[in-house]
């Protein structure tokens, strides 16, 4: 039988690495993330989970907790929990138990939420990600199935609030991490990686604006070597930008409270994007306050091994496995491979570029560099890129073949990007070659002509020659620049370097 799994945030993190100190304090961060599962119906009823319906039009008798109604488990929600467990390398409990989490709030008709407590369906696991080029791993405590509550509406109600129960009963997986994060950068990178995983395997659409992926950050500070400080939980962070701002503010606030001689009180807090500040919502409850007990209307959830095996066989290649394949097959660095597997669309674009003939390393550099810069500046995804993978492959091939320089490649991309060149092979190569000719960017292939330019530059730059021979490397770069200018950027930089060094020696 599975053993009880509890959140260990209060426990000391023996042996965990210390992150960068903030004003002499160590930051401790853990996450509780609610991923709304992509089922068509709710976790214990047949009511629709579609977003955006008129208030209370998708709440059935079970969701309203009318007398005599009983919950019935949604098999699709369980299957999605199995997928997550497999993706995170976690243990999937053969037997898990549902509990009633008791609290009173207007949007909770039953007076309790059906959740899991002592024996969750997914136990342990980990999330590995990069912060810059450094790999980090956060351990997970659990992921448990539960139902969502309704929603209180305060807009357009003068002195009153409305209740919308459309969301009541929507299936959630609450994913609880250990407090292993030591900086805001780590926290945001962890959240992004978890978001990537749940969308990659198709269990959640990841829409943060609609509340499909909601993060609660538990934040505390302490002096190195001291017991964990009192944590405050920042609720419902629905964008990575606000997540960073909220955690940064909360860290500063807690340090100032301590240094001013006040004690940090455990609380649930909200982040106000307009003011950039956090504010207390209510005193933070502990598990005992919810009076958990097994739900008498739901039998234990039993998951047979053959069900797990069947789900595993249908799983897509996971980001970590795909990144490892890129490293072993294409010789990419672990960091580059991780960047290319940020989404299935990005990985597919890279695969298509390589399949069209581009060298993997050069294709990787262009996709994570020049392509990413352009996509970010226009706030569009790789799916909406105005040039096809085959066009990029043709540009990369021309650079590899020394027909154009790297800088000329950017100019070709400028032209085709603006034109919206979504072409397949072999037409893509024709468009790229035409753009090179129209822009006059073809590199000089006549060695004699290039040597004449180099001789002309050397004849008029004696000062740089003397400085180079005196050991000043910058003087050599200046000579290269003069040759490139004289050739209108068409000279092959490698040939220029070789010719100059030959003549200067």
Could you walk me through the main structural features you see in this protein, from its secondary elements to its overall organization?
- With 505 residues, the chain is of the alpha+beta class.
- The chain folds into 3 domains: 26-290, no CATH class; 318-439, no CATH class; 447-504, Arc Repressor Mutant, subunit A (Orthogonal Bundle).
- It contains 15 helices and 17 strands.
- It is elongated and about 95 Å long.
- The model is unreliable at 6-15 (pLDDT under 50).
Search tags:
17 strands, 10-stranded mixed beta sheet, Arc Repressor Mutant, subunit A, 39% helix, 15 helices, 505 residues, alpha+beta, 3-stranded antiparallel beta sheet
């Amino acid at each position: 039988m599975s053993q009880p799994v509890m959140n260990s945030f209060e426990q000391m993190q023996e042996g965990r690495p210390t992150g960068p100190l903030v004003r002499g304090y160590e930051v401790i961060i853990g996450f509780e993330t609610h991923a709304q599962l992509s089922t068509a119906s709710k976790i214990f009823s047949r009511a629709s989970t579609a977003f955006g319906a008129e208030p209370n039009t998708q709440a059935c008798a079970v969701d309203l907790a009318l007398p005599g109604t009983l919950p019935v488990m949604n098999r699709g929600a369980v299957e999605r929990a199995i997928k997550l467990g497999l993706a995170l390398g976690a243990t999937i409990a053969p037997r898990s138990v549902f509990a009633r989490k008791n609290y009173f709030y207007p949007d909770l008709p039953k007076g309790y939420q059906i959740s899991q407590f002592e024996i969750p369906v997914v136990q342990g696991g980990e999330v590995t990600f990069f912060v810059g080029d450094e790999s980090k791993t956060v351990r997970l405590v659990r992921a448990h199935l539960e139902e969502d509550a309704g929603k209180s509406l305060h807009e357009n109600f003068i002195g009153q609030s409305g209740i919308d129960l459309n969301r009541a009963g929507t299936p959630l997986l609450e994913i609880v991490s250990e407090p292993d994060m030591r900086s805001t950068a780590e926290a945001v990178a962890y959240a992004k990686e978890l978001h990537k995983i749940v969308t990659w395997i198709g269990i959640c659409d990841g829409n943060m604006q609609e509340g499909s992926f909601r993060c609660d950050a538990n934040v505390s500070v302490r002096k190195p070597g001291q017991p964990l400080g009192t944590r405050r939980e920042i609720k419902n962070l629905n964008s990575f930008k606000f997540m960073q701002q909220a955690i940064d503010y909360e860290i500063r606030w807690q340090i100032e409270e301590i240094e001013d001689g006040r004690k940090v009180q455990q609380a649930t807090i909200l982040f106000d994007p307009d003011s950039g500040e956090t504010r207390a919502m209510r005193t933070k409850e502990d598990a005992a306050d919810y009076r958990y007990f097994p739900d008498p209307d739901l039998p234990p959830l039993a998951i047979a091994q053959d069900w797990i095996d069947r789900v595993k066989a249908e799983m897509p290649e996971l980001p970590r496995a795909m990144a490892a394949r890129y490293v072993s097959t294409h010789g990419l660095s672990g960091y580059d491979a991780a960047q290319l597997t940020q989404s299935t669309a990005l990985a597919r674009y890279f695969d298509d570029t390589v399949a069209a003939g581009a060298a993997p390393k050069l294709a990787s550099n262009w996709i994570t560099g020049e392509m990413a810069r352009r996509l970010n500046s226009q706030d569009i995804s790789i799916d909406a890129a105005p040039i096809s993978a085959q066009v990029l492959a043709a540009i990369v091939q021309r650079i590899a073949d020394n027909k154009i320089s790297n800088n000329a490649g950017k100019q070709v991309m400028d032209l085709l990007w603006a034109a919206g060149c979504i072409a397949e092979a072999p037409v893509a190569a024709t468009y790229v070659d035409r753009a090179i000719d129209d822009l006059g960017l073809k590199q000089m292939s006549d060695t004699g002509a290039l040597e004449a330019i180099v001789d002309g530059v050397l004849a008029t730059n004696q000062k740089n020659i003397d400085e180079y021979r005196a050991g000043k490397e910058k003087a050599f770069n200046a000579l290269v620049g003069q040759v490139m200018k004289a050739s209108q950027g068409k000279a092959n930089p490698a040939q220029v370097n070789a010719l100059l060094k030959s003549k200067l020696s």
